[in-house]
Specification:
Blueprint lengths: L2 H17 L4 H6 E7 L9 H14 L4 E10 L2 E11 L13 E13 L2 E9 L1 H8 L6
Parallel strand pairs: 1-5
Antiparallel strand pairs: 2-3, 3-4, 4-5
Length: about 140
Amino acid sequence: MSLEENKALIRRFVEEVQCQHNLAALDELFSPDFVDHSGMTDPPTLEGSHQFFSMMFAAFPDMRFVIRQQIAEGDKVLTHKTLQATQLGPFMGIPATGKAVAVDIMDIFTVAGGKITEHWTVGDMLRMMQQLGVVPGP
């Protein structure tokens, strides 16, 4: 696949899974042997991703992402995006707060054979916890 096709695949993941909450699209977009290196899914597999996104959609039913920029090189796609959501359900042991969050996230995906095979992420979780009111702000 070309670099532009790889970027389009990641944009499709963001739109269909993360914004439209279509869990079935994971099976179409991810390789069966997908590995998540983020430390957020347990197990770090396609099944773990299903579980993680189910929890996220329950906690943040209006969750959406805005892609700020993408860079592709070889089989890697880096995506800088902003999570925008309201916490209306439990999240990581935190009861629903009703508070809105906006958090910047950087993802690196590996693409092979038209499927997403690996994922790494860095997100500003401290800022998210401050916005939820569970950690004092600066």
